[in-house]
Each structure stands twice: as C-alpha cells, then as structure tokens.
Amino acid sequence: MKATRVFQITALALVVVSAVQVGWWLFDQHAYTVEKVRAARAAYAEQTLAAQALLDSGTSPARVQQLLPGIVVSGGRAALAPEREQTLTTEERHRYNQYAWEGSFFLLALAVCIAVIARALRAEARVLEEQDSFLALVSHQFKTPLASLQLSLETLALRSPTPQAARTLIDRMLADLARMELMVTQILESARLERGRVEFKSEPLELSGAVARVVTQLEERARQERTSISSDIAAGLYVVSDPLALDLVVRNVLENALAAVAGTGGGSIVLTARAVNGEVELSVRDSGVGFRPADGARLFEKFTRLPGSGAGQYGTGLGLFIVRRLMELARGRVSAHSDGVGQGAQFVLTWPAAAPEPRP
User: Fold this and answer.
1) Alpha-carbon distance 337 to 293, whole Å?
2) Within 13 Å, how many C-alpha atoms sit on residue 69's CB side?
3) What's the pLDDT tens digit per position in 214-228?
4) CA-CA 20 to 30 A from 295: which of 42, 168, 230, 253?
C-alpha cells in the first residue's frame, strides 16, 4: 500500500477518533452541568428547610435572612430568593449553549475533515482503478500491432513473397508502427499536459489550412474504412492557438470521428466552421455509433472509452482528454453532443478569433 494512502487512512482514523472524543466530551459536560445544577438546587433546598426550622423555633425573619442570604421570608414561610433561582437557570442555559456551540463547531470541522479525507481516498481509489484499467488496455493495444508485426516479419523471413505481397506486408507493418507511435505520443503528451510542461505559443492561425493538412493525412485511412470526409471551411477564418496544438486537436477529433464511423461499417464526416461573437467554431459531425447524451462530458475525461462510443478497436482513452487540455490552454472550449447510440455525434471546437496577419 502506498505511503500516501496509509497516511490518509491513518489521518481518517485519527479524525474519527477525535470526533468520537468530542461527542463524549459534549455528553460528559452536559451530564456534569446537570449534576452541578442539581447539587446547587439540593443545597438551596436544604437551606430553605433550615430557614423554615429556624422560623418555626422563633428566630426572627431578619436573623434568618442574615444567616442565609439566599433565602427570603414571606408570610412566615421560607423560600429560595427569585434572583438565586434565576441565576441557576441562566447559568444552566449558558452552559448548555456554550457546549452546544463549541461542540457543534468542532464536530462540523471534524466532519469536514472526514469528508475531505474520504473524498481523497475515493479519488485515489478511482485513479488506481483507472491506472490498472489503463495498463491492461495499453498492454492489449500494444499486443495486437506487435503480433501483427511479428506475423508480417515471419512471413517475410520464411517466404519469398512477390513484390506486391511484400508491399502489402510492409504497408501493414508501417501502419502497425504508426499506431503504436500514436499511442506512445498520446501517453507522453497527456503526461506533459497534466504536469503543465507545455510551451504554448498563441498566434493567429488560419483554420482552413490546418484542417486541410489533417484531412490530407487521413484521406487514405478514411478511404480504406469507407468513410467520406467533406470540409466546408471558408478562407480567412483565423484562430488564436499554437500551430502544433491546432493540428493535434483537429487530428484527434477527426481520428475519433473516423473510429466512430468505422464502428458502423462506413459513413461520412462533415466539417464546417463559422465566426460568431468574436470566436471561431469548428463543427465535426459524423454518422458514427454516437453515445448517450449524458455521456458527452465524460468523453473528455482521462482514460475514458465509453462502450459503443466509437472509441474503436484501438485507442488509449487519451485523445479527447488531450483535446480538452489543449483547448483550455488556447482559452477555447470543446463540447460533444449525440442524440443517442447509433445517432452519430457532433464535436464543436471553439477558439478566440484572431485578425488575419497583414501580408508584407
């Protein structure tokens, strides 16, 4: 067990013990106050009986009040002075209020501590579970292309394939290597983003150019997966972002859309953009598998791969997490919407608009 978890559990146990101790202190003080007031009332009752006995024996009322200042004599009867009775009642109420406020404050503070520590323990347990799932997922994701690479290499080593067959095997190996490189890149990039070790350069960038570059890189894959990509982005739409971050964001969203469409056996992806209220919106709509409307925000959490969401056969659950972090660094935002599983999805990326750079 990790040292931090041991510390958290120990701290939680100490806080719980402290809460129990405070509860016992409240109970004990309440009992002590009740007993003290009861003893005072009993003492005054004895004084009243003594004063009455003195009166019955012929002692003057003035002498009785001189001997017992807390007793008053009226009509030949001795009784406790009203101010003494009021003092007892006020003191009792004051003690009750004091213990109630002090006890409530300490119990509230301890309850907050317990809640914070318990939440930290739950969060750590969730992180550990995510890490275990991530390790299992990455192991599985690497095992598949590695097995494909091994098979292709063994085929080349044991046989003498025709140039066309060799070209097919080489293309498959290159695709497997590219897939593993992408996974490693996503893992390293997510670690850098989470630790804030990113140099982000904000500058005006033309959106249509960035989208065109990414679409060109993914056209062959889209063709193989029977997916059409259409882009309708007017020239002159400039956004404020980092050049590498812009390409990575567009690429990750498009790859996610390709995976979603591939899950249905093929379909279409449509990219559109518009300028609105000092911002530029890029919409990526696909005809893929979609997801439940309530899961739109979860897609951008780390290691999230929703069942039936179009994560595809390959993936680490980091692509959309990287998109969200890079959009935050660019002071933009990203959202996802789907009408349900099987209804396709739409991702909207929003950047601050920038004025075009003046031409020399």
Assistant:
1) 6
2) 2
3) 898 888 888 888 899
4) 230
Q: Which residues, given as ranges, of the chain have pLDDT below 50?
A: 309-314, 360
Dihedral sign, CA of 148, 153, 156, 159? negative
Cα–Cα distances in Å, from 89 out to 68, 69, 97, 99?
A: 20, 18, 12, 16
CA 20/CA 43 separation, integer angstroms:
34
Contacts of 244 (CB under 8 A, 6+ apart): none
- Tell me: the pLDDT tens digits for 136-171? 666 766 777 788 888 888 888 888 888 888 888 888
Cβ contacts of residue 95 below 8 Å, gap of 6+? Answer: 29, 33
For residues 234-262, b (16+ Cβ closer than 10 Å) or e, as one string?
A: eeebbbbbbeebbbbbbbbbbbbbbbbbb
Encoding tokens for residue 9?
A: 């559990």
- Angle, CA 267 vertex, CA 266 and CA 270 arms, to 5°: 140
SS3 at position 79: strand
Written as six digits, the tokens of 269 are: 């992806």
Type of residue at 225: E
Q: 39: which 2 tokens?
A: 């003893």
DSSP 3-state of 42: helix
Q: Using the structure block, give the residue that is written with the tokens 């990790």.
A: 2
Provide DSSP, 203-241.
Answer: EEEEHHHHHHHHHHHHHHHHHHTTEEEEEE--TT-EEEE
186 vs 42: CA distance, rounded Å? 80
φ, ψ (nearest 5 deg) of residue 310? 90, 20
pLDDT (tens digit, 9 = 90+) per residue, 269-300?
A: 999 999 998 999 999 999 988 888 888 888 88
DSSP for residue 335: E
Question: In the structure encoding, which two tokens stand for residue 57, read together?
Answer: 């024996």
Which helix or strand (DSSP H or E) is residue 13 part of? helix 3-56
Q: Which two tokens stand for residue 280?
A: 């530029």
**DSSP character for 358?**
P
